[in-house]
Amino acid sequence: MMLQLLPLAAFTLQPTPAVQMPVRDPRNWPEPVMDKIAPPLPPLRKGAVLVLSKTNGFRDPEQIAAAKIVLTDLARKQGHDVFETENAAVVNRRDLTKFGVIVLNSTSGTIFNDAQREAFRTWIEQGGGVVLLHGAGGDPKYEWNWYPETLIGAQFIGHTGRPKQFQQAAIDVVDRRHPATRDLPARWVRTEEWYSFDRVPAGQRTRILATLDEQTYEPFPERVRMGKLHPLIWTRCIGRGRMFFSALGHKAETYAEPLHQRMIAGAIRWAAQSRGSGC
């Protein structure tokens, strides 16, 4: 009996197809840049507002652009000079003396070097007011522990995900005596990407202003569930300074909402120490 010889190709091992890793859109994940040279400042009156929109992590270009316009307009309507930039080197001991308020417009990633971190921390502790909006408190981890532990008071752990990323839910405004929340309804229903945190912030004279009712939407995935007390908006006292944080504001169109604008305007007034009891 003659054995039939099979073609050599029948025994050739085929290469394993390469695993295709998801490609990050550079519009949403720009190449990180650490700024070293501060931008030139125009003449600014005392108590000016700095709007910083630096992103070295996730970035939503439409949201950043829309918020810049609204934040600048709200601050100017209160009589403040405003300087808007994406250059984090403006955060230095010399230039920060020009400002009474810093608004972090969904900043993300590591944006400050060691000298800038020290200047930022010292400026706040000595009486500066900072307003953190949405992504400014939405990094899954931070290289600078002081930022989530002391300034914000909680670590972001996630938000509602696809296909249920944006859902309508009810916010309970539990403290309407604050300038940022006094014009809000006690029950504020809106659509958002809902943030969750590893704890309810405490200490540093924390003041919870608004919480999320988890019974009014589906916390998805399950790990973003916090339970009965799910804070979304709060303030803290940092030395002689003030910190206001709001987890709201993912989509660009939210900055056109009258109630959202009133909340931000009140936060800037409070951070500037022109309204409210202070820290």
Topology, element by element:
Blueprint: E1 48-52, H1 61-77, E2 82-85, H2 93-96, E3 99-105, H3 114-125, E4 129-133, H4 146-152, E5 156-159, E6 166-173, E7 187-193, E8 195-197, E9 207-212, E10 231-238, E11 241-246, H5 258-271
Parallel strand pairs: 1-2, 1-3, 3-4, 4-11
Antiparallel strand pairs: 5-8, 6-7, 6-9, 9-10, 10-11
Helix pairs in contact: 1-5
What does this structure look like?
The chain is an alpha/beta fold. The protein has a single domain, classed as Class I glutamine amidotransferase (GATase) domain (Rossmann fold, 3-Layer(aba) Sandwich), CATH 3.40.50. It is 19% helix and 23% strand. It has 5 helices and 11 strands. It has helices at residues 61-77, 93-96, 114-125, 146-152, 258-271, and strands spanning 48-52, 82-85, 99-105, 129-133, 156-159, 166-173, 187-193, 195-197, 207-212, 231-238, 241-246. Strand 3, helix 3 and strand 4 (129-133) form a beta-alpha-beta unit. Helix 1 (61-77) crosses helix 5.
H/E element order: EHEHEHEHEEEEEEEH
Trace the largest sheet across and list its strands: 2-1-3-4-11-10-9-6-7
What is the average of the pLDDT values? 92
The helix content is 10-25%
Task: Provide a count of the helices.
Answer: 5
- β-strand number: 11
Q: Which secondary-structure class do the elements indicate?
A: alpha/beta
- The CATH class label is Alpha Beta
**Unreliable sequence segments:** none
CATH fold call: Rossmann fold
Number of domains: 1
Assembly status: single chain
